[in-house]
TrEMBL record:
PANTHER family: RIBOSOMAL RNA SMALL SUBUNIT METHYLTRANSFERASE I. GO terms for cellular component: cytoplasm. GO terms for molecular function: rRNA (cytosine-2'-O-)-methyltransferase activity. It comes from the Bacteria. It is an enzyme of class 2 (transferase). It is found in: Cytoplasm. It catalyses: cytidine(1402) in 16S rRNA + S-adenosyl-L-methionine = 2'-O-methylcytidine(1402) in 16S rRNA + S-adenosyl-L-homocysteine + H(+). Its EC number is 2.1.1.198. Belongs to the methyltransferase superfamily. RsmI family. HAMAP family: 16SrRNA_methyltr_I. This is Ribosomal RNA small subunit methyltransferase I. Keywords: Cytoplasm, Methyltransferase, rRNA processing, S-adenosyl-L-methionine, Transferase. It comes from Streptomyces violarus.
Length: 281
């Protein structure tokens, strides 16, 4: 019989948030794969647990090489527990490769649900939560970061991002440039920890605040784009949206079609605006 892969959520700050099943899984797993074995040791000590199984590291640097080893353990009947430093494995953390490989081998995969920085920040943000999308970490390079943000400039769902504290000011400034300085957002810092802070306001104000320096684990929640009717989008805006999509790699024909659907106008209207702008140069 094949084994089972267990993805276990770990506290994002307060150790008291550890799900009760986490201790049982840590104690009973045949193999515990941890993003950082030192942090795992602190976690098990805090929970008063001693893993009976073998403990191995599983992080970005060895994920590709170690995945086949863990799949072999699973195929041999082992119960493998995967934990990351905080939150749920696979969510901007190691885990996806192992889950995909296990699924391909028809190995059962289950989870111990736990704390989530994404859902916690979303709930605390004060922004709409009925529809949202998680965008993870933005690219580090300025040009690539702007390109990624432009791809979702018209997204009406609430957006959730992770960000490093030393890049927060640049990221918020880029968001203000692409989404507009008045777009509402929330910066959630050190969630569930002693110095938890949720700073809410327009992107322009948040960017100015972050320029002074911010510390801690950061999750950013941004309001989705406002819904606009066809009459509100003029030729210049149509041309701008087509240009943004072209810069992101779309062909002009595809960009025109996408913008037409996005704003609810015939393709001919967008095409004529693009042609007029080209002739006006």
């Amino acid at each position: 019989m094949t084994g089972i892969l267990v993805l276990a959520g770990t506290p994002i700050g307060d150790i008291a948030d550890a799900p009760p099943r986490l201790a049982d899984e840590l104690a009973g797993a045949d193999v515990v794969a941890a993003e950082d074995t030192r942090r795992l040791r602190r976690l098990t000590q805090a929970l008063g647990v001693t893993p009976k199984g073998r403990v191995v590291s599983y992080f970005e640097g060895n994920e590709a090489a170690r995945t086949p080893e863990l799949v072999e353990e699973l195929a041999g009947g082992a119960r493998v527990l995967l934990v990351t430093d905080a939150g749920m494995p696979s969510v901007s953390d190691p885990g996806y490769r192992l889950v995909a490989a296990a699924v391909e081998q028809d190995i059962r995969v289950t989870a111990v649900p736990g704390p989530s920085a994404v859902l916690t920040a979303l709930a605390l943000s004060g922004l709409p939560v009925d529809r949202f999308c998680f965008e993870g970490f933005l690219p580090r390079k300025a040009g690539e970061r702007l390109g990624r943000l432009r791809e979702v400039a018209g997204e009406r769902r609430t957006l959730v991002y992770f960000e490093a504290p030393h890049r927060l000011d640049d990221t918020l400034a880029a968001m203000a440039e692409v989404f507009g300085v008045e777009r509402r957002a929330a910066v959630c810092r050190e969630l569930t920890k002693t110095y938890e802070e949720v700073r809410r306001g327009p992107l322009g104000e948040l960017a100015a605040w972050a320029a002074e320096g911010v510390r801690g684990e950061i999750t950013v929640v941004v309001e989705g784009a406002p819904e606009k009717g066809p009459e509100e989008v003029g030729p210049e805006e149509l041309v701008r949206r087509v240009r943004v999509r072209e810069e992101a790699g779309e062909r002009r024909k595809e960009a025109i079609a996408a913008v037409a659907v996005e704003v609810g106008v015939p393709k001919r209207v967008v095409f004529d605006a693009v042609v007029a702008a080209k002739n006006a140069r």
